Structure formats: structure tokens, C-alpha cells
Amino acid sequence: MNGKQLVIDTLKHKKTSRIPWIPFAGVHAGLLCGYDAKEVLTDADKLYQSVNEANKIYHADGQPVVFDLQIEAEILGCKLQWETYSPPSVKTHPLENTDEIPCLCTLPKKESGRIPIVLDVMTRLKNQIGEDTALFGLVCGPFTLASHLRGTNIFMDMYDDEDYVKRLLDYCTKVAMVMSEYYIEAGMDVVAAVDPLVSQISPDHFETFLLEPYTKLFDHIKQMDTHTAFFVCGNASANIDIMCQSSPDAIFVDENVDLKKAQQTTRKYNITIGGNIPLTSIMLHGTQQDNIKYTIDLIDSLEKDNLIIAPGCDMPYHTPIENTVAVSQAVQNTQAMRASVQNYDITDDGPDVTLPDYTKLERPLVEVFTLDSATCAACTYMMASALDAKKEYGDKIDIVEYKFTVKENISRVKKMGVQKLPSIYINGQLQFSSIIPRKSELFDRINEVL
């Protein structure tokens, strides 16, 4: 049985000979060929070469063709901030100061933006590796796309104007449906809706705003005889059950979610669970042995059916190649690799850090703990909320971001006791954990300190 069949059978909830492995090597694939993030996301030949290389080096059972949640947003008028070693982030929000809904004539066409590049590479990869590897087409999920268009105002809208949010999400769902059709026509075996901001809302808000759109989206994809997946980042633990109710074939989560507990929920609905090797502390900054040990311990803690092992999300660009190879070997040759680390323990050898003396601050200190606001959509909008506060209060407050991609900040997160990313602390006290606040909520917390 080849890798593709392993993935497909797992999504069909069949017993398989081993657990499938899917490396989410987005812009990291460019590293393998010496290309930066912008090159690999704007040049079809470089993207094709990079994904092919990742397929060979990491022995992928399945893999995404491109991991960029800003393709649709760029087409719909968002200006992007391009980065050297990560996907671009959304810089402007065309609906930020209007309650209009884009008309259906603005839905992406095959010729729009960077879609021709993606479709070209999908078609070539289908011919090159599509017999042996399950290819994933990733579409931007409706809520994250709505946030790209509307900005942080979307979180106030959910309280102040439910009808507007529902109409905007209906439009964004139509965008996802159109993109899905293009990707399926290009040969994708699985279409995954990637919606990191789902972790930033409550189950009640998911049921109110997203259950119907996602059910429609997954039904639409399944009607085209294609498998579905739901990718979410951040602490989505509380939303796993309601996500299952939208009936995807699989749900993929990151390290903020306890995969064993999440699997108990997905098994009730006969849905595959995927994840969740930590991106930074293990894959980026760990050793080969750390990656083997973590992966095997994760596998041993889980039921083996309806399971796919993958990085927690899009891998950091500079993830050491040997670390990803180690995860691949741990999944595909588990028994042999288990013997190699049977007496090994993962150790924390991060640098020591000194925390501020919060009792002697000159002004309130707002600390934003993120994976990286340049790469993680949930982190982008959490940081945007903090920057809104900076615009409001100016020199009356201080703002600092601690990115989890920096090894020193991993130590800081542990010393502070930060449980979930992204989070906001004010004067050393947790205020918002994996929930993006409305402006009024954040301003009220700052006013209490002032």
C-alpha cells in the first residue's frame, strides 16, 4: 500500500497497516532548494521544484501543494506584507470602515491573482507524484478570510451586528467553494479549509456563525467526490466537538490542543484526527532525538486508527531538515526508532531569562505572547488588538511581542506559565488566553491598571 492509499483509507476510516505521515512543508519547502518564501509563493517553477524535493526527502504520504492563507485575501483587495522566511501577512482590510458585502462578481476567477501559479503546480504535481502521494489543496477558511477583509472589527461585529457577520461569512464561504472547485479540477485528493481564527471564538459563536457555512462547504466538496479536512491553529480544544458536527473527514490541530483528549471527541463522530508535533520547541529548536522521542511518545498515547501524524501547522522556514526526517522515520519505522530512544529523555536546555519587576513599572506593560505574528493568523490579530491599544493610549502604555520562534522566548513562556498561544498579559497578569479581545474589552483591562 502506497502513501496516498494510506491517507485515503484513513480518511475513509478504514484500518491501515501503519499511520500516515503528512509534512506541512509550506515555505519550508523552499529552504530545500535555496528559495525564500516570496520566491516559492510567486514562481510556479520554484514552487514545483520545492514541493517535489520535500516529497522526496520527507517520504510524504500526503502533502499540501501550497500553504498560504492570503491568496484569496490578496485577490479581494487586501494588501500584503511580504516576509523573507514566512508567508505574507495581511496589511490592510478593505472592509474595515464599511459594512458592505462584496458582490458575487468579485469571486475569484481562475485567472485571478496567484491562482494560475497554484493550479499550474497542482496539475504538474498530480502528474509527477499524484499516484503515490495524496495531494492537499488548502483554501482559506471563511472566518479567517472574513477577518482578513474586515480586520479586528469582526470580533465586535459578532456582538453588535450578527446579521452582517452572517452575510459576510456567506460570501466568504462562496469564495472557499469556488477555490475548492478549481483545486479539485486540478487533481487535488483532499481539500482542506484552514481557519486558524476558529480557535479565537467560543463554541456558541461557532454554532451561531460557522456551523452552517462549514457544513455547506464540506458537503459541496464531498459532492465532487473529494475528501475534506478542517485545519485549525491555537487552543481550539473547546471547539473540537462543534467542528466535528460540520462533518469533515478529518480535523488537524496544533500543539495547543491535547491530541489524546481531542481524539476521544473525534472518535465519537468517526472523524480522523491529525497533528500535532510542536513547531518550534521540538521541530525548530529540538534535536533529532527530541523529534523521534516526541513523535513516538505521541503515537503511543493515541489510538492508531483514524489518526494522521503531522506538524502542528505550517512548518517554520528554518526547521532543520534532519529534524523533519526524524519525525518521518519515527512515524514510518516506529519500532526501530523506539529502540533508538528507549533511554532518552527530552531536556529543556533553553537560556535563563529575567522577568520584569511588575511592581515597579513606569506604565502598564502589555505583553503579547505569540507563535509569530508574521506567520500565524491568530497571532496576527491578537497583536493587532494590542497595537490598537497602543494607538489609543500612546506613551501611556508599553507593548512588547514575544515570538515563540525565538528560543529565549520559549524559556520566557515557560517561566511565565503561559499555557496557550496567543495570549495577552498586562503587568504580568493573564488577561486573554487564545481569545482575541474586542477593543472595548482590552481597553477596559488597561483602564483598570491605569
The geometry reads as: globular
The major β-sheet equals:
7 strands, parallel
Q: Could you list the spans in which at least 5 consecutive residues all have pLDDT below 50?
A: none
User: Cα-atom Rg, whole angstroms?
Assistant: 21 Å
CATH architecture name of the largest domain = Alpha-Beta Barrel
Going across the biggest sheet, name each strand in turn. Answer: 1-4-5-6-7-8-9
| CATH fold descriptor of the largest domain | TIM Barrel
Proportion of strand residues? 5-15%
Oligomer description: single chain
The percent range for helix content is: 40-55%
Domains (count)? 2
SS field, number of helical segments:
19
**What class, by secondary structure content?**
alpha/beta
So what's the CATH class of the largest domain?
Alpha Beta
Let me know the number of strands. Answer: 13
N-end to C-end Cα span: 63 Å
Mean pLDDT level: 95
Q: Can you characterise this structure?
A:
This protein is α/β, with parallel strands linked by helices and 450 residues long. It folds into two domains: 3-340, TIM Barrel; 358-449, Glutaredoxin (3-Layer(aba) Sandwich), CATH 3.40.30. It contains 19 helices and 13 strands. The protein has a seven-stranded parallel β-sheet with strand order 1-4-5-6-7-8-9. A four-stranded mixed β-sheet has the order 11-10-12-13, sandwiched between helices. A two-stranded antiparallel ribbon has the order 2-3.
